[in-house]
Amino acid sequence: MTDASAEAGPVKVWDPFVRLYHWSQAALIAAAWITADEVKWLHMRLGYAVMVLVGLRVLWGFVGPRHARFGDFVRGPRAVLAYLGALLRGKERRYLGHNPAGGAMIVALLLVIAGTTITGWLQTTDAWFGSDAMEELHETLATLILVLVGFHVCGVIVESLRHRENLTWAMITGRKRAGDGNA
């Protein structure tokens, strides 16, 4: 980080939909976990809400503003591995939007969350009602969400410390420091 970038004012990065999606998704998934065994009707409704949110986020990934679009942050495996290697060497570049590892995490979370909601819904259909295999898959995917969230939180902490920037606060305000990132 250069002194000039520290002095630059904040710039808008995360639009209101991305921020609302992020925090709503976190709250709904937490509530779905809490209600999973005790309040089935609420758990199911929370799952449907999560399913709708994922669909909206996927749509927003194609039509939303620059840093919300998949084309801005989804990179191939080589770019993700190169970024992680640079991070381990302490030479990673700062991104104004998501870095390649963050982009990979978004894709992974969207896929696993979508799979969890779909397997939950399938258990309400005639074909899969009472299916132990479908229930097991649903529970495995739900657990995988927690694992991915753990990696996500660790990544946010590491990046916040490495770049001296509170990324959690940026996801609340929508703003990040201008400067040495890809503007």
UniProtKB/TrEMBL annotation:
Signal peptide range: none
Location of the protein in the cell: Cell membrane
Highest taxon in the source lineage: Bacteria
Residue intervals passing through the bilayer: 46-64, 100-121, 141-161
Membrane topology value: Multi-pass membrane protein
Recorded GO MF terms: electron transfer activity; heme binding
A Pfam family the protein falls into: Ni_hydr_CYTB
Keywords, comma-separated and alphabetical: Cell membrane, Membrane, Transmembrane, Transmembrane helix
Subcellular location, principal: membrane
BP GO terms, sorted: respiratory electron transport chain
GO cellular component, one term: plasma membrane
Residue ranges of domain Cytochrome b561 bacterial/Ni-hydrogenase in the record: 13-174
Protein name: Cytochrome B
